[in-house]
Amino acid sequence: MHLRYAKELKSNIRMSGILMKLCKLSSSTSQANQFRIVGGFDTDISDAPYMASLRELRKEIRALGSGHFCGGTIIKDRVILTAAHCLTKRSPAKALVVVGFKYLSLNWPTMKKLKISNWNYHKKYRKERKAIFDIGLIFTIENIEPVNGAIAFLPLNTVEISPGTKCLLSGWGRVEHNAPHRASCLQSLWQRILDKRVCFKIANRYDLLCTNSGLPTGASRGDSGGPLRCNDKLAGVIAAGDLHGLALYTDVRPFADWIEEQIRNGIMPLGSFCIGKHVVLAISICVATICKSGF
């Protein structure tokens, strides 16, 4: 797919005739050591309404879309699944989640910007052991309400994925390996799953999924944490790739129990974010006093 690059995207673009061209433009900011989709095709958000963009709040305040650093998948109300390496050395208070849009650097009618309450990644993840236990969960403060054709939950895969299964990966990452530009328009690419035995020879682990296009396309620099959708279920989380089409994904199926446990412990009551610690203390003292007085 031939893609043209723009040196800069103007934030005040409003002309509807320019929107279609934006899919072939890229923003001027780059994120190192992330994985992007190369050789993909333009995708409507209605075809991947479960997509989420993780963004640095500081950069996002300056320019819409400039804070994007990883992808994610909406799996449940207030729950985003992503890669562990997207969350290390970052703070939930300095990030946000954006859903319901197609163009990275434009406001969209169905776009929602969600504050993050907390996040957690697998305790066995180690940065130096690429793609091993590379899985994490983000919990938003606000509800993620489904919007027809724009926002939806993607259920987790629960069965073994057969070799050769055609799966879809999506994201707003780089469209060329050696260029610092991101895609403005959501990109996707179909890939086929390799046999688990072949994947084991590559990564020496069975809790990974692998694809190999044999071409310089697919998961490369930039779309880390994004989804690999197989049979309309979330089968994998983009973890690592190379310049020759090989990509590794965290297989979500072996982590089903871990995900359920994290969700049980990670979602905080909606009202808790509006109550300061001093208010909680005052309420506690008040309750204790009432109890002692016999009421």
Using brief descriptors, characterize the structure shown.
295 residues, alpha+beta, 6-stranded antiparallel barrel, 5 helices, globular, disordered C terminus
Q: How many DSSP H or I helices? A: 5
- Provide the β-strand percentage band: 25-35%
Largest sheet: 7 strands, antiparallel
Compute the number of strand runs: 17
Distance between the termini: 73 Å
**Based on helices, strands and strand pairing, what is the structural class?**
alpha+beta
Spatial arrangement of strands, main beta sheet: 3-12-10-15-16-17-13
Gross morphology is globular
For the CA atoms, what is the radius of gyration? Answer: 20 Å
Helix fraction by DSSP (H/I, runs of at least 4): 10-25%
Which residue ranges are poorly predicted, with pLDDT under 50 across at least 5 consecutive positions? Answer: 1-36, 275-295
